[in-house]
Description:
By secondary structure, the chain is of the alpha+beta class.
Amino acid sequence: MEVNQIIAPDPASLREQWHALRGQNPNMRIRNAAEQLGVSEMTLLLTEPVSRVQRLDSKFAELYQNISLLGPVMTLARNDEVVHETTGSMGKFSVTGNGAMGLCLGEIDLRVFFSHWKHGYAVKEVGAKGERHSLQFFDAGGGALHKIYAVQKTDMSAWSALVEKHTASEQRPVIDLQALPVIERYKGRVDSAALREDWEAITDVHEFHSMLKKHRLDRLTALESIGSDWAFPVVGDSLENVLKNASTSAVPVMIFVGNRGIVQIFTGRVSKLVNIPGWFNVLDPDFNLHVLNAGVKSVWVVKRPSEDGVISSVDGFNARGELVFSVFGERKPGKPELPGWRALVEKLEPAS
């Protein structure tokens, strides 16, 4: 599919519109303002002066290998429907695939796809509570991929040193943003028998993506084609239901949220579950989840075979058929699925 260049608006005019929106709604998020103004989030961010938005070099993998020096931070990954925030210290960050992939395990748990990372900035936001510092990373279209925020216990001397080390020599080059191709759902005939044969041959949940690639299927089409013994839709509030029951039963979970450039994972127990108009939230001290209810168009129970037995997840999809969250019971390779998690999944009500 052809990738087209995005025509940049006049920065001064855009800045005026952005400030007018903030005047009307001081709590408006930059992502929402950018959508309302018809520009990318990065384009709107770059209306701020260099003193507040400092361009970083493109050594993203090297930078992430040094985040551990900062102490506790808050990391944010999101898509259009779900926001995932974890607070903790970054452990060892490993880089593989000739720099294309990144992996971090521990309090901050990440799977990074650096081929989609094109731009990075150190940002200072000035608000009623003072300055807020962040590192923000974007794709070729100016869409946000990942953000790291300083928290109260962050080592700000180490933060400043890291930013200085990775500050780009040219701060405001001309950037030609690209209109990224939309990933379209599969429209051909599905060989359900062949799909089922390969599905049932999986021995590790990580083989699932390779199976989809072999059959040239998007994830949702595969679920719709495999048969209800392996995947079936459940009622729309199933995420809230399964997390409420996991909280009540003290069952630890794994919550995956991501976009084209990253997957961020929380592992542990959830406690404070809150509904506000239009949003379902987890508001725990070191983990926040925000789910736009109207954006989640279908929720599925998915079962995958493995050498450790069947592994079950609860997966949510948006209107474009893109995966926006996935929830498993806590587990490690070589361990079977938690019986408590399986029991919670079995209680979910199938969609009519």
